[in-house]
Amino acid sequence: MSATYHILTQKNLHPAGQQEHDFSTDVLIGFSQMPKQLSSKYFYDDRGSQLFQEIMELPEYYLTSCEFEIISEQKEKISQDMAGEPFNLIEFGAGDGRKTKILLNNFLKKGFEFHYIPIDISEAAMKTLIKSMNMEFPELKTEGIVAEYFNGLKWLNNTAYRKNLVLFLGSNLGNFDKAHSRAFLHNLWNILNNGDSVVIGFDLKKDIDLMLKAYNDSKGVTAEFNLNLLRRINRELGGDFDLEKFRFYAGYDVFTGAIESYLVSLERQEVFIEKIGQSFVFDSWEPIHTEYSYKYLESDIEELAARTGFLIKKQLYDSKKYFVDSVWSVNKQNRRG
Ligand code: AVJ
Question: Is the CB of residue 29 less than 8 Å from the CB of residue 37?
Answer without folding.
Answer: no
